[in-house]
């Protein structure tokens, strides 16, 4: 007899995977260039040249040192380089001792849920629309409860009344993801301050800290000259989960970190993060890419194509009558579908080889996610197809 929970998880393909497989089948029939796959959040811009140079340098060095295990929390040089970069950008004073290097944000988040869960009654609050894996990491990974806050479709910002109604003595943490996948919403400094004030008041009321788990893989992808606020500065009990998957375009290399807050009880909190990494079998973050990050912590890929794609797609679709909140960050558009049943709508879109992900998968029915980390030309060629699809509903 196998573990039935994980067996069920392994057997059930995610919608995005289903769409991916469907896209491959269609590509074999009609050619890859005729498939408009907007389903994946796989960056389409190359990693910066600094990454290539770092790799070339490392290839010439002692392979035993380059490829060997590092300490579980990560190589000191890499943690120090990340801390220095954070300090230079955000005026913080990290030393590297607060960092625990991981295999990307997915590992960082699952480690945090595991580290913080003390009892099956513990709850983590998640705002819809959300990254679907949160539910798996909280419920199956950590054995805690996931409490959902419904979406606020007018702007996809925080519905504070709905949040407050869900906070309880069992709340262990609140998960935020700004810039957001799938809505593109970015929380302002004022929103973060309001959230921090509410969580501080509730932590005092319940007599224990409510942690903020801040999932930030899109931190650097923000438009119109804005910057995403550095959330850990506003609320001390924040665990930052970061990844280089999007900023350095290295999603397959699996490198990121947890930034553990230097609050009272830090030693235990950091040790619990290390322990969670151990339970989950992470051993250490990929060694070679720790060394790449040590050399490239201040770099980003050329992210400008996302701004161009956002403009083209947002203006094109809203011009055709699709209703959509303008994304302020990340590389997703999250318009309303033209019929309430988002799955039926996305099925119909396949007729034009437009591959879209139903909002239901992110806890926001009646929407579709369009991932625009694709060639700009793909968007240009897809727009007339979105128009034909819209025409069916007029
Ligand atoms: N969190 C969010 C919101 C994401 O969109 C993703 C990936 O797309 C992840 C976490 C996981 O990222 P990583 O590749 O760093 O594990």
What does this 3D model show about the protein?
It is a single chain. The chain has 394 residues and is an alpha/beta fold. The chain is built from 14 helices and 12 strands. A 7-stranded mixed sheet has the order 2-8-7-6-5-3-4, with helices on both faces. The chain is globular, with a radius of gyration of 21 Å. The chain starts with a helix and ends with a helix. The model has no long low-confidence stretch (mean pLDDT 97). The structure holds pyridoxal-5'-phosphate (PLP). Pyridoxal-5'-phosphate binds at residues 41, 104-106, 131, 177, 181, 215, 217, 243, 245, 251, 256.
How would you briefly describe this protein structure?
By secondary structure, this protein is an alpha/beta fold.
